[in-house]
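Write out the 3D structure for:
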Amino acid sequence: MARSSQTEMAVLGGLSLEPMTAYALREVIRDVLGHFWSESFGQIYPTLHALEEAGHVRREGGPRARSSVYAITASGLARLRDLLAEPIQEPQPRNGLLLRLFFGRVLGRDQCRALLRDARDRARDQLGEYEGILAHLTATEGHLPDFPFMRLTLLAGIHQCRASVAWAEECLTELAGDDNP
C-alpha cells in the first residue's frame, strides 16, 4: 500500500470518529494514533483536498481550509473500508539500536550495555504510559463501541514494550560477565 493510501486511511479514519478541522485532525493523529502512526500537516492538507475533490469528505464553514470542519461522507466510509481491507505492506526495517549492536565489536561492550540499558528504560517508561492510558480508557470509555479496538492497539504496544524489556535484560545478562573484545 502506497504511503498516500495510508495517509488517506489515517485521515478518513480520524474523520470517522467525528467531524473536525484539519488542525483537530492533526491533533487526534498525533495524540491518539501517535504511538503507532504519524502524519504531518504537509500530508494532511493535500490529502483532505484530494478527498474533498473525490467526494469522500465535505468541508463545512470557513472560507479557508484551516478554519473549515471536515466530515466523512458515505463514499468516504466506503473508501476507508476498502483501504482497511488492503493487504498490509510492512516498511523496510531501520533500527539504529540493532545496527549498532550488530557492529558492537567496534563500538565496545560498555557502549553496547549502555545502549541496552537505555532501550530497556525507555521501553519500561513507554510500558507505564500505555498501561496508564489503558486504565484511563477502561474507566472512562470502556462502554463505547470503539473501545475494544482501541484496547487492541494499546495491547500491542504493551506486549511490544514487555518484549523489548525482556530482550534487553537477556542481552545485558549475556554481555555482563564477558568483557573480552
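The first helix runs from residue 3 to 17.
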